[in-house]
Write a structure and sequence with these properties.
Layout lengths: L4 E4 L12 E3 L2 E5 L5 E5 L10 H22 L1 H7 L11 H10 L3 E6 L10 E7 L6 E8 L4 E6 L1 E2 L4 E5 L9 E9 L5 E7 L2
Antiparallel strand pairs: 1-4, 2-3, 3-4, 5-6, 6-10, 7-8, 7-11, 9-10, 11-12
Helix pairs in contact: 1-2, 1-3
């Protein structure tokens, strides 16, 4: 199987400038700068790949389905259009596909002097290029049992805030869990020990 590529420059109006696809045993591809590349079509059968490769193919297949769905629906286009980067290949589809591929990042949790009092603000910094749609906070006791949980409200930029709803004995509080979710459903979790 040949893997060498020939660089071919076609004059505008030559009839095949901008051609892409397969013609016989040749594959034509158009580069970002407008140059047409020609390569011999691959021969042989596709191998199944390793378990990791198969998992990657499955995830990429799911990402392409998600990207197409977002491009096809009004809500998806409205959500992703502000994040589309200008350039030759910017599109809602590609932006949604990239968003599907990576989970949000939880960068920081600020608890201040929290000792179990009601109404205390707990702040979470969650970031993603196409935005985080929800942040959930849980307070756990020393046995790992949930004392309290609830949705945090967006504050500004990448910060979210949750105000505690109940009073808890200071000795009982052990951990704070923060969970961030993006539009495709990817999640990230951060656990902070409070003692």
């Amino acid at each position: 199987m040949a893997t060498d590529m020939a660089r071919v420059k076609m004059e505008a109006g030559s009839g095949i400038a901008g051609l892409s696809g397969r013609v016989g045993n040749l594959v034509f591809r158009m580069g970002a700068e407008g140059t047409t590349y020609v390569q011999q079509a691959p021969t042989g059968k596709k191998r199944p790949g390793s378990a990791a490769q198969q998992e990657h193919r499955r995830k990429f297949g799911a990402a392409t389905v998600y990207g197409r769905q977002q491009q096809a629906c009004i809500e998806g286009r409205a959500y992703y259009q502000p994040f589309v980067q200008a350039g030759n290949f910017g599109s809602v589809y590609r932006t949604a596909l990239a968003d599907f591929a990576k989970p949000p990042q939880l960068l920081a949790v600020e608890v201040g002097n929290y000792c179990g009092q009601v109404g205390h603000p707990l702040r979470v910094q969650a970031k993603k290029p196409c935005g985080v749609v929800a942040v959930w906070v849980r307070i756990l006791d020393v046995a790992g049992q949930m004392l309290e949980e609830g949705a945090a409200a967006p504050e500004n930029a990448d910060w979210w805030s949750y105000k505690t709803q109940q009073t808890h004995p200071a000795a009982a509080i052990r951990q704070l869990q923060a969970l961030a979710r993006d539009r495709p459903g990817n999640e990230a979790e951060l656990v902070v020990d409070l003692k």
